[in-house]
Amino acid sequence: MDALIPDVPAVNRSPDLLAIRKNLIGLTREEIAAELVLAGEKEKTAKMRSKQLFHWLYYQGASDFDQMTTISKEMRKRLPETFTADRPEITSLQESTDGTRKWLVKYHDGQEVESVHIPEEDRGALCVSSQVGCTLTCSFCHTGTMKLVRNLTAGEIIAQMMVARDTLGEWPSPKGERMISNIVMMGMGEPLLNYDNVAKALKIIMDGEGISLSKRRITLSTSGVVPKIHQCGEELGVNLAISLHAVTDDVRDILVPINKRYPIKELLQACKDYPSSNNARRITFEYVMLAGINDSPADAKELVRLLKDIPAKVNLIPFNPWPGANYQCSSNNAIHRFAKIVNDAGYSSPVRVPRGRDIMAACGQLKSESKKIRASERNSLQSAQG
Ligand code: SAH
Ligand code: SF4
Questions:
Q1: Which atom of ligand 1 sits closest to the CA of residue 327?
Q2: pTM of the predicted protein model
Q3: May I ask the CATH architecture of the domain 89-359?
Q4: How far apart, in whole angstroms, are the C-alpha atoms of residue 79 and residue 70?
Protein backbone atom coordinates (compact mmCIF):
# COMPACT_ATOMS: atom_id res chain seq x y z
CA MET A 1 0.00 0.00 0.00
CA ASP A 2 2.78 2.38 0.89
CA ALA A 3 4.09 2.19 -2.65
CA LEU A 4 0.74 3.45 -3.83
CA ILE A 5 0.73 6.57 -1.73
CA PRO A 6 4.33 7.64 -1.30
CA ASP A 7 3.53 11.27 -0.51
CA VAL A 8 0.67 10.93 1.90
CA PRO A 9 1.57 11.59 5.53
CA ALA A 10 1.56 8.49 7.72
CA VAL A 11 -1.48 9.72 9.61
CA ASN A 12 -3.57 9.41 6.45
CA ARG A 13 -2.51 5.93 5.52
CA SER A 14 -5.04 3.99 7.53
CA PRO A 15 -6.88 1.43 5.36
CA ASP A 16 -10.25 2.87 6.45
CA LEU A 17 -9.39 6.29 5.13
CA LEU A 18 -7.98 4.87 1.92
CA ALA A 19 -11.19 3.01 1.26
CA ILE A 20 -13.32 6.12 1.45
CA ARG A 21 -11.06 8.78 0.02
CA LYS A 22 -12.11 9.93 -3.43
CA ASN A 23 -9.52 10.12 -6.18
CA LEU A 24 -9.81 13.47 -7.95
CA ILE A 25 -8.06 12.31 -11.14
CA GLY A 26 -10.70 12.00 -13.84
CA LEU A 27 -13.02 14.64 -12.42
CA THR A 28 -14.00 17.80 -14.29
CA ARG A 29 -13.99 21.22 -12.57
CA GLU A 30 -17.73 20.93 -11.96
CA GLU A 31 -17.37 17.49 -10.44
CA ILE A 32 -14.52 18.61 -8.21
CA ALA A 33 -16.68 21.52 -7.01
CA ALA A 34 -19.58 19.15 -6.28
CA GLU A 35 -17.27 16.86 -4.29
CA LEU A 36 -16.00 19.81 -2.28
CA VAL A 37 -19.56 20.82 -1.44
CA LEU A 38 -20.29 17.26 -0.33
CA ALA A 39 -17.23 17.50 1.88
CA GLY A 40 -18.63 20.61 3.55
CA GLU A 41 -17.24 23.46 1.45
CA LYS A 42 -19.56 26.42 0.71
CA GLU A 43 -20.87 26.51 -2.90
CA LYS A 44 -19.33 29.92 -3.56
CA THR A 45 -15.79 28.97 -2.60
CA ALA A 46 -16.07 25.43 -3.98
CA LYS A 47 -16.11 26.78 -7.54
CA MET A 48 -12.96 28.78 -7.02
CA ARG A 49 -11.23 25.92 -5.21
CA SER A 50 -12.17 23.51 -8.00
CA LYS A 51 -10.37 25.73 -10.51
CA GLN A 52 -7.28 25.77 -8.33
CA LEU A 53 -7.38 22.03 -7.86
CA PHE A 54 -7.88 21.46 -11.61
CA HIS A 55 -4.76 23.53 -12.25
CA TRP A 56 -2.67 21.68 -9.67
CA LEU A 57 -3.85 18.27 -10.74
CA TYR A 58 -3.67 18.53 -14.51
CA TYR A 59 -1.35 21.45 -15.24
CA GLN A 60 1.19 21.06 -12.45
CA GLY A 61 0.76 17.30 -12.04
CA ALA A 62 0.74 17.53 -8.24
CA SER A 63 -0.02 14.26 -6.49
CA ASP A 64 0.35 15.69 -3.00
CA PHE A 65 -2.00 18.38 -1.64
CA ASP A 66 0.91 19.94 0.23
CA GLN A 67 2.40 21.03 -3.10
CA MET A 68 -0.70 23.13 -3.88
CA THR A 69 0.64 26.38 -2.52
CA THR A 70 -2.13 28.65 -3.80
CA ILE A 71 -4.57 26.80 -1.55
CA SER A 72 -4.70 27.82 2.11
CA LYS A 73 -2.57 25.76 4.49
CA GLU A 74 -5.58 24.86 6.53
CA MET A 75 -7.39 23.47 3.51
CA ARG A 76 -4.31 21.66 2.25
CA LYS A 77 -4.29 19.81 5.53
CA ARG A 78 -7.98 18.91 5.29
CA LEU A 79 -8.08 17.79 1.64
CA PRO A 80 -6.22 14.48 2.11
CA GLU A 81 -8.77 13.44 4.72
CA THR A 82 -11.36 13.11 1.95
CA PHE A 83 -9.45 13.10 -1.34
CA THR A 84 -6.39 11.71 -3.06
CA ALA A 85 -4.59 12.37 -6.34
CA ASP A 86 -2.84 9.02 -6.26
CA ARG A 87 -1.65 7.36 -9.44
CA PRO A 88 -2.13 3.68 -10.14
CA GLU A 89 0.82 1.52 -9.14
CA ILE A 90 3.49 0.92 -11.80
CA THR A 91 3.89 -2.86 -11.82
CA SER A 92 6.72 -2.68 -14.32
CA LEU A 93 8.50 -0.09 -16.41
CA GLN A 94 10.71 -1.26 -19.24
CA GLU A 95 12.83 0.73 -21.64
CA SER A 96 13.91 -0.74 -24.95
CA THR A 97 17.20 0.09 -26.60
CA ASP A 98 15.46 2.47 -29.00
CA GLY A 99 14.06 4.49 -26.09
CA THR A 100 10.53 3.06 -26.21
CA ARG A 101 9.09 2.79 -22.70
CA LYS A 102 6.42 0.38 -21.55
CA TRP A 103 4.45 0.81 -18.36
CA LEU A 104 2.29 -1.89 -16.87
CA VAL A 105 -0.05 -0.10 -14.46
CA LYS A 106 -2.22 -1.73 -11.85
CA TYR A 107 -5.51 -0.23 -10.72
CA HIS A 108 -7.01 -0.49 -7.23
CA ASP A 109 -8.83 -3.75 -8.07
CA GLY A 110 -5.67 -5.41 -9.32
CA GLN A 111 -6.48 -5.13 -13.05
CA GLU A 112 -3.60 -4.11 -15.27
CA VAL A 113 -3.13 -2.40 -18.63
CA GLU A 114 -0.13 -1.30 -20.65
CA SER A 115 0.80 2.10 -22.01
CA VAL A 116 3.71 2.70 -24.37
CA HIS A 117 5.76 5.79 -25.15
CA ILE A 118 7.50 5.98 -28.52
CA PRO A 119 9.91 8.91 -28.52
CA GLU A 120 10.93 10.80 -31.65
CA GLU A 121 13.57 13.49 -31.83
CA ASP A 122 11.39 16.43 -30.85
CA ARG A 123 8.13 14.71 -29.89
CA GLY A 124 6.62 11.36 -28.94
CA ALA A 125 3.37 9.41 -28.88
CA LEU A 126 1.77 7.69 -25.94
CA CYS A 127 -0.34 4.62 -26.74
CA VAL A 128 -3.18 4.46 -24.22
CA SER A 129 -5.59 1.63 -23.31
CA SER A 130 -9.35 2.11 -23.00
CA GLN A 131 -10.46 -1.26 -21.59
CA VAL A 132 -8.97 -4.21 -19.76
CA GLY A 133 -9.29 -6.80 -22.55
CA CYS A 134 -11.84 -6.38 -25.36
CA THR A 135 -15.32 -7.76 -26.02
CA LEU A 136 -14.61 -7.93 -29.75
CA THR A 137 -12.87 -10.98 -31.12
CA CYS A 138 -10.80 -9.94 -34.11
CA SER A 139 -9.19 -13.21 -35.15
CA PHE A 140 -5.65 -11.84 -35.60
CA CYS A 141 -5.57 -9.86 -32.33
CA HIS A 142 -4.25 -11.22 -29.09
CA THR A 143 -6.40 -8.90 -27.00
CA GLY A 144 -9.41 -10.42 -28.76
CA THR A 145 -8.63 -13.77 -27.15
CA MET A 146 -8.89 -12.29 -23.65
CA LYS A 147 -12.15 -12.15 -21.79
CA LEU A 148 -13.26 -8.56 -21.24
CA VAL A 149 -12.72 -7.77 -17.65
CA ARG A 150 -14.00 -4.23 -17.58
CA ASN A 151 -14.11 -0.71 -19.03
CA LEU A 152 -11.58 1.76 -17.69
CA THR A 153 -12.96 4.84 -15.97
CA ALA A 154 -12.06 8.30 -17.26
CA GLY A 155 -9.69 8.68 -14.32
CA GLU A 156 -7.95 5.41 -15.14
CA ILE A 157 -7.48 6.49 -18.76
CA ILE A 158 -6.05 9.90 -17.80
CA ALA A 159 -3.90 8.30 -15.10
CA GLN A 160 -1.95 6.43 -17.82
CA MET A 161 -0.91 9.80 -19.23
CA MET A 162 -0.12 11.18 -15.76
CA VAL A 163 2.02 8.19 -14.83
CA ALA A 164 3.96 8.54 -18.09
CA ARG A 165 4.49 12.26 -17.45
CA ASP A 166 5.61 11.57 -13.88
CA THR A 167 8.25 9.18 -15.21
CA LEU A 168 9.36 11.54 -17.97
CA GLY A 169 9.29 14.56 -15.66
CA GLU A 170 6.99 16.42 -18.01
CA TRP A 171 5.24 18.72 -15.52
CA PRO A 172 3.99 21.40 -15.63
CA SER A 173 2.41 21.13 -19.11
CA PRO A 174 5.10 22.46 -21.46
CA LYS A 175 4.21 25.27 -23.85
CA GLY A 176 6.66 24.21 -26.55
CA GLU A 177 8.10 20.83 -27.46
CA ARG A 178 6.83 17.84 -25.54
CA MET A 179 8.05 14.32 -25.03
CA ILE A 180 4.40 13.25 -25.05
CA SER A 181 3.17 15.41 -27.91
CA ASN A 182 0.58 12.93 -29.20
CA ILE A 183 -1.85 10.38 -27.83
CA VAL A 184 -3.03 7.34 -29.76
CA MET A 185 -6.01 5.44 -28.37
CA MET A 186 -4.63 2.20 -29.76
CA GLY A 187 -3.95 0.24 -26.63
CA MET A 188 -5.98 -2.54 -25.20
CA GLY A 189 -9.72 -2.38 -25.88
CA GLU A 190 -12.18 -0.79 -28.28
CA PRO A 191 -12.43 2.91 -27.35
CA LEU A 192 -15.82 3.46 -28.98
CA LEU A 193 -17.35 0.71 -26.84
CA ASN A 194 -16.30 2.70 -23.78
CA TYR A 195 -17.15 5.99 -25.42
CA ASP A 196 -18.38 8.01 -22.42
CA ASN A 197 -15.28 7.39 -20.33
CA VAL A 198 -12.93 7.86 -23.28
CA ALA A 199 -14.68 11.10 -24.27
CA LYS A 200 -14.54 12.47 -20.74
CA ALA A 201 -10.87 11.57 -20.40
CA LEU A 202 -9.96 13.13 -23.74
CA LYS A 203 -11.89 16.32 -22.97
CA ILE A 204 -9.94 16.73 -19.73
CA ILE A 205 -6.67 15.98 -21.55
CA MET A 206 -7.56 18.61 -24.20
CA ASP A 207 -8.53 21.29 -21.63
CA GLY A 208 -6.28 24.32 -22.16
CA GLU A 209 -5.86 24.90 -18.42
CA GLY A 210 -4.62 21.40 -17.73
CA ILE A 211 -2.67 18.89 -19.78
CA SER A 212 -3.69 20.94 -22.81
CA LEU A 213 -3.13 18.57 -25.69
CA SER A 214 -4.77 19.65 -28.94
CA LYS A 215 -7.35 17.43 -30.64
CA ARG A 216 -5.08 17.45 -33.67
CA ARG A 217 -2.56 15.51 -31.63
CA ILE A 218 -4.96 12.80 -30.53
CA THR A 219 -5.86 9.78 -32.68
CA LEU A 220 -8.60 7.33 -31.83
CA SER A 221 -8.49 3.91 -33.46
CA THR A 222 -11.67 1.90 -33.90
CA SER A 223 -12.55 -1.47 -35.38
CA GLY A 224 -15.68 0.20 -36.76
CA VAL A 225 -18.36 0.93 -34.16
CA VAL A 226 -20.28 2.89 -36.78
CA PRO A 227 -22.99 4.55 -34.61
CA LYS A 228 -20.33 6.16 -32.42
CA ILE A 229 -18.04 7.43 -35.15
CA HIS A 230 -20.07 10.53 -35.97
CA GLN A 231 -20.51 11.41 -32.30
CA CYS A 232 -16.77 11.10 -31.81
CA GLY A 233 -16.13 13.55 -34.64
CA GLU A 234 -18.78 16.00 -33.48
CA GLU A 235 -17.92 16.01 -29.80
CA LEU A 236 -14.19 15.39 -29.77
CA GLY A 237 -12.94 16.21 -33.28
CA VAL A 238 -9.91 14.00 -32.80
CA ASN A 239 -8.12 12.23 -35.65
CA LEU A 240 -9.72 8.96 -36.66
CA ALA A 241 -7.99 5.67 -37.47
CA ILE A 242 -10.02 2.78 -38.84
CA SER A 243 -8.92 -0.84 -38.47
CA LEU A 244 -10.06 -1.85 -41.95
CA HIS A 245 -7.81 -4.88 -42.63
CA ALA A 246 -9.91 -6.31 -45.49
CA VAL A 247 -11.63 -5.10 -48.66
CA THR A 248 -14.52 -7.57 -48.88
CA ASP A 249 -17.20 -8.26 -46.28
CA ASP A 250 -16.52 -12.01 -46.51
CA VAL A 251 -12.92 -11.59 -45.38
CA ARG A 252 -13.62 -8.76 -42.95
CA ASP A 253 -16.41 -10.74 -41.28
CA ILE A 254 -13.73 -13.22 -40.24
CA LEU A 255 -10.92 -10.82 -39.36
CA VAL A 256 -13.02 -8.12 -37.67
CA PRO A 257 -16.33 -9.78 -36.70
CA ILE A 258 -18.03 -6.48 -35.80
CA ASN A 259 -18.18 -6.15 -39.61
CA LYS A 260 -21.20 -8.47 -39.56
CA ARG A 261 -23.06 -5.71 -37.73
CA TYR A 262 -21.53 -2.75 -39.50
CA PRO A 263 -20.32 -3.83 -42.96
CA ILE A 264 -17.65 -2.08 -45.02
CA LYS A 265 -20.11 0.10 -46.94
CA GLU A 266 -21.62 1.56 -43.77
CA LEU A 267 -18.21 1.99 -42.21
CA LEU A 268 -16.87 3.90 -45.20
CA GLN A 269 -19.98 6.07 -45.31
CA ALA A 270 -19.34 6.99 -41.65
CA CYS A 271 -15.79 7.93 -42.67
CA LYS A 272 -17.05 10.12 -45.54
CA ASP A 273 -19.35 11.86 -43.04
CA TYR A 274 -16.71 12.21 -40.31
CA PRO A 275 -17.05 15.83 -39.22
CA SER A 276 -13.44 16.85 -38.92
CA SER A 277 -11.86 15.02 -41.83
CA ASN A 278 -10.53 16.93 -44.81
CA ASN A 279 -7.46 16.84 -46.99
CA ALA A 280 -5.30 18.38 -44.31
CA ARG A 281 -6.62 15.96 -41.69
CA ARG A 282 -7.00 12.62 -43.37
CA ILE A 283 -8.46 9.45 -41.90
CA THR A 284 -5.92 6.70 -41.32
CA PHE A 285 -6.84 3.22 -42.51
CA GLU A 286 -4.93 0.51 -40.69
CA TYR A 287 -4.35 -2.63 -42.71
CA VAL A 288 -2.65 -5.65 -41.16
CA MET A 289 -0.69 -7.69 -43.69
CA LEU A 290 -1.71 -11.36 -43.48
CA ALA A 291 -0.09 -13.84 -45.85
CA GLY A 292 -2.52 -15.19 -48.42
CA ILE A 293 -5.53 -13.58 -46.71
CA ASN A 294 -5.68 -9.90 -47.68
CA ASP A 295 -2.35 -9.08 -49.34
CA SER A 296 -2.84 -9.68 -53.09
CA PRO A 297 -2.49 -6.97 -55.77
CA ALA A 298 -6.24 -7.37 -56.40
CA ASP A 299 -6.86 -6.54 -52.71
CA ALA A 300 -4.67 -3.44 -53.04
CA LYS A 301 -6.60 -2.28 -56.13
CA GLU A 302 -9.91 -2.85 -54.41
CA LEU A 303 -8.67 -0.86 -51.42
CA VAL A 304 -7.87 2.07 -53.70
CA ARG A 305 -11.34 1.83 -55.21
CA LEU A 306 -13.01 1.77 -51.79
CA LEU A 307 -11.11 4.79 -50.53
CA LYS A 308 -12.15 6.98 -53.46
CA ASP A 309 -13.67 10.25 -52.19
CA ILE A 310 -12.30 9.77 -48.66
CA PRO A 311 -9.40 11.95 -47.47
CA ALA A 312 -7.32 8.93 -46.49
CA LYS A 313 -3.90 7.57 -45.74
CA VAL A 314 -3.08 3.91 -45.26
CA ASN A 315 -0.90 2.34 -42.57
CA LEU A 316 0.31 -1.11 -43.54
CA ILE A 317 1.04 -3.14 -40.42
CA PRO A 318 3.07 -6.33 -40.75
CA PHE A 319 1.18 -8.95 -38.70
CA ASN A 320 2.48 -9.36 -35.19
CA PRO A 321 2.44 -13.11 -34.46
CA TRP A 322 1.43 -14.51 -31.10
CA PRO A 323 1.30 -18.05 -29.72
CA GLY A 324 -1.71 -19.87 -31.14
CA ALA A 325 -2.41 -17.35 -33.91
CA ASN A 326 -3.69 -18.84 -37.16
CA TYR A 327 -2.03 -16.27 -39.41
CA GLN A 328 1.36 -15.45 -40.79
CA CYS A 329 2.83 -12.14 -41.73
CA SER A 330 2.90 -11.38 -45.47
CA SER A 331 6.25 -11.64 -47.22
CA ASN A 332 8.42 -8.63 -47.70
CA ASN A 333 7.65 -8.72 -51.42
CA ALA A 334 3.89 -8.93 -50.91
CA ILE A 335 3.93 -5.99 -48.50
CA HIS A 336 5.93 -3.76 -50.81
CA ARG A 337 3.95 -4.76 -53.89
CA PHE A 338 0.77 -3.86 -52.00
CA ALA A 339 2.22 -0.58 -50.74
CA LYS A 340 3.30 0.42 -54.25
CA ILE A 341 -0.17 -0.03 -55.74
CA VAL A 342 -1.76 2.07 -52.98
CA ASN A 343 0.98 4.66 -53.16
CA ASP A 344 0.83 4.95 -56.95
CA ALA A 345 -2.88 5.70 -56.60
CA GLY A 346 -1.96 8.78 -54.57
CA TYR A 347 -2.38 7.51 -51.01
CA SER A 348 0.44 7.68 -48.54
CA SER A 349 0.98 4.05 -47.48
CA PRO A 350 3.91 3.64 -45.10
CA VAL A 351 4.80 0.20 -43.80
CA ARG A 352 5.13 0.34 -40.04
CA VAL A 353 8.74 0.15 -38.99
CA PRO A 354 9.77 -1.77 -35.85
CA ARG A 355 9.34 1.20 -33.53
CA GLY A 356 5.88 2.08 -34.76
CA ARG A 357 5.16 -1.60 -34.73
CA ASP A 358 6.26 -1.68 -31.12
CA ILE A 359 3.20 0.37 -30.27
CA MET A 360 0.93 -2.24 -31.75
CA ALA A 361 2.81 -5.10 -30.23
CA ALA A 362 2.82 -3.53 -26.82
CA CYS A 363 -0.75 -2.35 -26.86
CA GLY A 364 -3.29 -4.99 -26.11
CA GLN A 365 -0.76 -7.57 -24.96
CA LEU A 366 -0.18 -8.68 -21.42
CA LYS A 367 3.36 -8.01 -20.43
CA SER A 368 4.43 -11.57 -19.70
CA GLU A 369 3.47 -12.59 -23.21
CA SER A 370 4.31 -9.39 -24.98
CA LYS A 371 8.01 -9.77 -24.20
CA LYS A 372 8.19 -13.02 -26.11
CA ILE A 373 6.12 -11.68 -28.97
CA ARG A 374 8.13 -8.58 -29.45
CA ALA A 375 11.38 -10.47 -29.78
CA SER A 376 10.03 -12.69 -32.55
CA GLU A 377 8.20 -9.82 -34.11
CA ARG A 378 11.30 -7.71 -34.35
CA ASN A 379 13.07 -10.50 -36.21
CA SER A 380 10.25 -10.91 -38.67
CA LEU A 381 10.08 -7.18 -39.18
CA GLN A 382 13.76 -6.83 -39.75
CA SER A 383 13.56 -9.47 -42.46
CA ALA A 384 10.37 -7.87 -43.83
CA GLN A 385 12.25 -4.64 -44.27
CA GLY A 386 15.21 -6.31 -45.89
N1 SAH B 1 -9.64 -1.70 -30.71
C2 SAH B 1 -9.12 -0.67 -31.51
C3 SAH B 1 -7.79 -0.12 -31.03
C4 SAH B 1 -6.78 -1.09 -30.46
S5 SAH B 1 -5.95 -2.19 -31.53
C6 SAH B 1 -8.98 -1.13 -32.95
O7 SAH B 1 -9.15 -2.31 -33.22
O8 SAH B 1 -8.76 -0.27 -33.80
C9 SAH B 1 -4.79 -1.17 -32.37
C10 SAH B 1 -4.43 -1.71 -33.77
O11 SAH B 1 -3.62 -2.90 -33.69
C12 SAH B 1 -5.64 -2.09 -34.60
O13 SAH B 1 -5.54 -1.60 -35.92
C14 SAH B 1 -5.57 -3.59 -34.58
O15 SAH B 1 -6.29 -4.13 -35.64
C16 SAH B 1 -4.09 -3.83 -34.64
N17 SAH B 1 -3.67 -5.18 -34.25
C18 SAH B 1 -4.23 -5.98 -33.33
N19 SAH B 1 -3.57 -7.17 -33.27
C20 SAH B 1 -2.60 -7.10 -34.18
C21 SAH B 1 -1.57 -8.02 -34.60
N22 SAH B 1 -1.45 -9.21 -34.05
N23 SAH B 1 -0.71 -7.61 -35.55
C24 SAH B 1 -0.82 -6.37 -36.09
N25 SAH B 1 -1.75 -5.47 -35.75
C26 SAH B 1 -2.64 -5.84 -34.81
FE1 SF4 C 1 -10.49 -5.43 -29.81
FE2 SF4 C 1 -9.15 -3.83 -31.53
FE3 SF4 C 1 -8.18 -6.25 -30.85
FE4 SF4 C 1 -10.33 -6.09 -32.40
S5 SF4 C 1 -8.24 -5.37 -32.91
S6 SF4 C 1 -10.08 -7.48 -30.64
S7 SF4 C 1 -11.34 -4.30 -31.55
S8 SF4 C 1 -8.46 -4.52 -29.49
A1: 22
A2: 0.89
A3: Alpha-Beta Barrel (3.20)
A4: 14
